[in-house]
Amino acid sequence: CISQCFLSLAVFGRAIHAIARISDEFWFDPVEKGLALRSVNSSRSAYACVFFSSMFFQHYCWTAASQPCQKEKQLPLPCKLIIKSVLPVFRCVNVLERNVEKCSISTSPSEQHITFQLLCRHGVVKTYNLTFQECDPLQAVFAKHMCPNILKVHSRLLADVMIHFPTSQEEITLSVTPMKVCFKSYTEEDTDFSRTMLTEIQLSPEEFDYFQVGVDSEVTFCLKELRGLLAFSEATSVPVSIHFDRCGKPIAFSIEDLLLEASFILATLCEPEKEAASPEPAC
C-alpha cells in the first residue's frame, strides 16, 4: 500500500514532464525506500528513471501485498500509466505550487486505479482517479561507473548551452578531448548546408565541476529527452553528471541529492562508416 504527501509539488510535476518526453506511458513503482518513476521509448533507445526517497514526502506509507496494511490500500506490483492521463494533473507546475496546499497519492488495486488528490486554496479539492495496468518491473542495465569520460556541470550552464539549438534540432553531437568540450549540431551527409543553421559551442574544462576525459570521443544523441531532464534539474538546482564512452555506446545524464536521483540513458549513433549502423539500445 502507498500513501504520499509531497514536500515539493513543482519538482514532482517537472519529473512527470521530463518522463513524458521519453514515452507515452510510464511505470509507477513504489518500494519501501521511496517511489520510482520509469519510462522507456518504443525503440528502447531512451530510458529514464526518477527516484524519490521516502524523505522527499511529508508522509510515505508502503506495505508489500503479502503484508497488508489495514488502513491503507495495496499496490501489489509496479503499474503502468498512460502519460496523457497524468499530465493534466501537473499541467502548470508553477501555478500548482501557488494554489495547491497539499497533494496526495493513494492506490486502489481492487479497482486498478491510482488517486491523485489536490487540496487547493479556499477548500477546493480536485480528485483524479487514473486507471493503471499491472506490469513487470522495468530496469535498464548500464554500468555508468565503467565509462572513461565523466563530466559534471551545473544544470543552468548546460541549459544555457542547449537554448542556442533550435527546437527543430533533433540530435546533437558531444565531442570531448582533454582540452575542450564541444556541443554541435548533427547533420546528415546529404544535408543542404546553404539552408541549414549549424550551431557549435565550446567549453573549457574549467567550466565544469568535475572533468575526466579518459578517451577522446564524439557521441551523437537525441536532444528532446535531454531538454526534459534539464527542465527538471533546474527545479532541483542539482548539477548534471554525464557518463559516456565512444560512439555507439549509451550516454547517461544523471542528477542526485539526498532526496532524489534521476538518470536518463540515451543511445548514441554508431560511426557512419560502419555498415548498417544502428544505435545500441539504452536498455
Keywords:
elongated, phosphoprotein, 2 domains, Proliferating Cell Nuclear Antigen, alpha+beta, 283 residues, ten-stranded antiparallel beta sheet, EC 3.1.11.2, five-stranded antiparallel beta sheet, DNA damage
Architecture overview:
The protein is α+β, with helices and mostly antiparallel strands and 283 residues long. The protein folds into 2 domains: 133 residues, Box (Proliferating Cell Nuclear Antigen); 123 residues, Box (Proliferating Cell Nuclear Antigen). 16% of the residues lie in helices and 40% in strands. The chain has 5 helices and 19 strands. Strands 10-6-2-3-4-19-18-17-11-15 form a 10-stranded antiparallel β-sheet. Strand 8 and strand 9 form a beta hairpin. The longest helix has 14 residues. It is elongated. About 6% of the residues have low confidence.
Q: What percentage of amino acids are in beta strands?
A: 35-45%
Structural class: alpha+beta
- N-to-C terminal Cα separation, in Å? 29 Å
Number of E-state strands = 19
Please state how the strands of the largest beta sheet are arranged side by side.
10-6-2-3-4-19-18-17-11-15
Largest sheet: 10 strands, antiparallel
What is the count of structural domains?
A: 2
In the predicted model, the low-confidence regions spanning at least 5 consecutive residues are 66-76, 274-279
Radius of gyration: 20 Å
**SS field, number of helical segments:** 5
Q: Mind telling me the CATH class of the largest domain? A: Alpha Beta
EC number: 3.1.11.2
Subcellular location: Nucleus
Protein name: Cell cycle checkpoint control protein RAD9A
Catalytic activity: Exonucleolytic cleavage in the 3'- to 5'-direction to yield nucleoside 5'-phosphates
